[in-house]
Amino acid sequence: MEFGKSRLLIYTAATLLVVYLVLLLSTTFYSQREIHEAAYKSLHFELQKRAAALSYFNSERKADVARMAQDRALMVFFSNRALGMSMEYGLKTSLLAMRDLVREMETSRVMKGVPIYKRILIQDIDGEILVDEGEEAGQARFWKTPSSLSMTPELAVSEDQPAKVYFMASVSHHETPVAIIIAWINQDAVIDQLVRHEDEGADYVFYLARSDGSHLVQMTGDSGPERVRRRDPRLVEPIPDTPYEIGFAGDYRRTGGLLASQGYFLALAFLAVALLLLLGWMAQQIQQRELALIASRDQLAETNRRLRMSQKQLVQSEKMASLGTLAAGVAHEINNPIGFIQGNLANLREYQAVLLPLIEDYRELVQARAATEPELLGRWEARLHGEDLDFLLEDMESLLTDTAEGSQRVAAIVAGLRSFAHGGDSRDEPLDLNECVTAALSLAGNEIKYKADVEQRLGELPPIRGNPGQITQVLVNLLVNAAQAIDGWGLIGVETLRRGDSVAVRVSDSGRGIAPEHMDQLFTPFFTTKDVGAGTGLGLSISHGIIESHGGIIHAESEPGRGSVFTVTLPIERADVPSTADDNA
Amino acid sequence: MSRGFLSVPPLLLGAFLLLTLTVAQARDLKEIREAGVLRHLGVPYANFITGLGDGLDVELVKGFAEYLGVRYEFVATTWTTAFGDLTGRNAKLGKDGGAERLDKAPIKGDILANGLTVLPWRQEIVDYSDPTFPSGVWLIARADSTLLPISPTGSRNDDISVVKTLIKGREVLALENTCLDPRIYQLEKTGANVRLPQKELKLNEMAPAILNNDAESTILDVPDALIALDKWPGEIKVIGPISDEQTMAAGFRKDSPELREAFNRYLGMIRKDGRYNRMVKAYYPTVFTYFQDFFATDS
Questions:
Q1: B117: which DSSP letter?
Q2: How close B243 gets to chain A, by Cα (Å)?
Q3: Are strands B37-42 and B111-112 parallel, antiparallel or unpaired?
Q4: I want to staple B182 with a disulfide (CB 3.0 to 4.6 A). Which of A260, B162, B187, B222 is the partner?
């Protein structure tokens, strides 16, 4: 299904691309003329804009030189000089005022950060340079004398190739020309800003030249003078109020070609986008498959983990079975002697009860007859061998008590071993796991209440079959262990749930956790990490035996420092017991 | 007792009171700080004291008062009484070229600052601060005068000699008791027809006076001449120098050394940080071109 959609997408994209290319080629072939015409109009408009800007620029510069020529500083200087004053005595001030005027003009006229003037010169009628300021100050003096100039400021072009643009005006005092002001334009930077077209390059340029074609003033960019030979007579625009024109050099149809090239470029771009889309779709497919592979791999890893766990449990079960056989033998062998011991101890207690009063009476008799029958007292003391009778009697009592307790403990251990070996009472009846949990919590209450909060989450469970007392015993054991694993105050969680054909109970704690190296020995008889005397090391092994006898599994997980989780899983229907119908029978 | 007191001659009593008053008002830095006011004596002159409440020296002394942490007070005076108002005794240029001490006068101010040119006879009666302004005296003539500007020789003394030769028999306006006093420059020896104004002129009225045909030419200090050239371009011309280069400075009583030292410290500070040049530029914008060395901030 997914693959079908992908094919549809590819077909659609390819069809669109073909249609687009057909349309583009049609436009290219049949609209070339219109494109060229549009390019011509566009260029002509650009030239008109530039001509207007250059005209305005020209008028501004003419105004600048006119303003300087008529400034009061020049008038003061030439007046004082006309009076014959020397530079040292009075004339220098007005000369420096002229210099300040020129400097102010140079610094205040800027176009896009570039100073408009690169040199301003005031030269008197005798050719003496009075003021010469700017980045090119100090270069050659001007060659014209003021008498040859008109009063009107004008734009001029030197006869260099390419020509230099400057503005000049004559300075008069009492209507007599006394000096000229020449202001050279920072041509490369400033004029270029006014003339250049943003798209021009190798194919075409704009140029600035005298209208009579005598001098090329400015070619933009890095284009060479040979370009001007390719100037198009249709694309020339005179600059108002000046003897100059701005024009286009090159083949304007190439600009239309540029448009077509742009179309091809767009087509290629479209194709590239389509390819990219296709690649994206393929990448998405690959990613999905990769995700599926990852999921399979994870599933396999989980299966493998479970397999290893089952294997481990199988080994454990085998080990437990062996231990159970061994334990059963040991228990049987010990059980009889311990029976003798406990029976004999009971008899000894009875004998003691008879003998002790007799001994007391005999001692009193010996003491009473000591005066008349000293040999009797001597015999008594000889029998005692210097021992303290009172201590002996007391110690005997203590020894009997300790022995009785020890034998009872041995008997309990033997009973535990038997229980581990044989799964205890095999009574089988309907069993509600949640009721077992409640009963266990009640029984273990004393152990838990000073150590932890209990969080219960009891799910709805079907009844199972088994021995409720034994299951409760297992749960009590787990709860007590959980409480004992907690230092200070913690949390014990009890959760029951159904897992397919099984029911499970999870007992978790926030205690110390179990070291990884102990995990394999948890269910081994007599293994304990508790203090000596605090546990027999049989609790979990017995629990293991009970659960196994119910056809279930007991499993432990733990993280040191975080706590442990014991999970008991029991089958709802046991294969080793008769069906419900039989129970009712 | 009362008879004895009353028998003291009135003239003697008056002299005693005047002396007491004079002594009581002669102050140095400590007394000025205690009084909380600095009294600035000044003659309205050029752009040093415009007479309109401002001027280069007004700003300079105001800044000094602020530097001292006292109130500024302007006390107007004249060239005739300026030294008496400062020192308690009037004085003028004597016939021998030195100072001639005149009658006593009440002290009215603590510092005399109004473009006061440093002259030898004045140094006998006041102590000057460090120089505050460059100066000199030029001969200025009306544009239509037949006096022609000299061609500088490269020697200031030779230039002065040439100018003094030129003015023989010519009308030259001058002003007694000022830096334009003709006796300072021995104008009487040149054969010039020195004209002293009938009425007391201010220094900045000298250029207008020759434009008004009061005389063909006048001597004028350089700062004032620069202003006149800017005000009346083409109407007056500088012929050449009459004096060597001079300086101006603030004048102090000779018994106010601490005040003078404090002023010099203040002046040095504002010259160094550029404040002084900003003050000068506001009143004499063209003077920097003539006296670049004097106004160099690192000098």
A1: B
A2: 12
A3: parallel
A4: B187
Instruction: Find the farthest-apart pair of alpha carbons in chain B and give their distance in angstroms, rounded.
Output: 78
Mutate to test the interface with B, among A77, A88, A89 (most CBs of B within 10 A): A89
- Do residues A17 and A270 lie in contact, with contact meaning Cβ atoms separated by under 8 Å? yes
Q: What is the mean pLDDT of each run of 10 residues along chain A (585 residues)?
A: 60 71 65 72 84 86 88 87 85 84 90 88 85 83 56 66 75 85 82 73 73 70 57 83 81 57 63 77 85 91 84 69 73 83 89 90 88 86 86 89 86 71 65 90 85 92 89 89 90 93 94 88 77 68 85 91 94 63 34
Domain boundaries, given as residue ranges, for chain A: 32-250, 255-420, 426-584
- Which residues lie closer than 8 Å to A239 by C-beta, 6 or more apart? A51, A54, A55, A58, A245, A246
Task: At B46, list the tokens.
Answer: 């050029």
Q: Which residue has the tokens 């007491």?
A: B20
Distance CA B2, CA A218 (A): 107
pLDDT at residue A495, as a whole number: 95
CA separation for the pair A447, A437 (Å, rounded): 15
Domain A426-584 in this protein, CATH class:
alpha beta
The span from the CA of B102 to the CA of B29, in Å, is 26
Q: Where are the beta strands (DSSP E) in A82-125?
A: 110-111, 114-115, 117-124
- A89: nearest CB among B138, B234, B286: B138
What integer pLDDT is reported at residue A536 of this predicted model?
66
Ranges of chain B with pLDDT below 50: 1-24, 299
Nearest-angstrom CA–CA distance, A533 and A539: 13
In this structure, are residues A23 and A17 in contact, taking their beta carbons and an 8 Å threshold? no
Indicate the residue of B149, B150, B286 with minimum beta-carbon distance to A93: B286
pLDDT at A262: 55
Distance between CA atoms of A273 and A267, rounded to whole angstroms? 10
Indicate the fold that domain A32-250 takes in CATH.
Beta-Lactamase (3.30.450)
- Give the three-state DSSP class for A57: helix
As given in the structure block, the two tokens for residue A42 are: 């566009």
- Three-state SS for B39-80 is EEEECCECCCECCCCCCHHHHHHHHHHHHHCCEEEEEECCCC
> In Å, how far is A56's CA from the nearest CA of chain B?
35
**Which amino acid is residue A381, in one-letter code?**
E
Answer whether A97 sits within 8 Å of B286, measured CB to CB: yes
Token pair in block for residue B222: 């350089």
Contact A90 B234 (CB under 8 A): no
pLDDT at res. B8? 43
- C-alpha B260/C-alpha B250 separation (Å) is 9
How many Å lie between the alpha carbon of A82 and the closest alpha carbon of chain B? 8
- Residues A470/A420, Cβ–Cβ less than 8 Å: no
Q: B37 Cβ partners below 8 Å, 6+ apart?
A: B65, B70, B71, B72, B73
CA nearest to A87 within chain B:
B152
Output phi, psi for A259, to 5 deg. Answer: -60, -45
**What's phi and psi for A83, nearest 5 deg?**
-80, 0
Tell me whether strands B127-128 and B133-135 are parallel, antiparallel or unpaired.
unpaired
Neighbours of A181 (CB within 10 A): 29
Q: Which of A72, A75, A85 sits opposite B149 (nearest CB)?
A: A85
Collapsing DSSP states into helix, strand and coil, what is residue A312?
helix
Domains in chain B, CATH or no CATH each: 10-134+247-290 (3.40.190.10), 137-244 (3.40.190.10)
Residue B101: how many other CB atoms lie within 10 Å = 16
* Both structure tokens of A359: 């001994």
Choose, out of B230, B235, B287, B288, the residue to mutate when testing the contact with A (most A CBs < 10 Å): B230
Please report the pLDDT score of residue A15 as a whole number: 74
Structural element, H or E, at residue B150: none
Nearest to B239 by CA among A578, A549, A86: A86
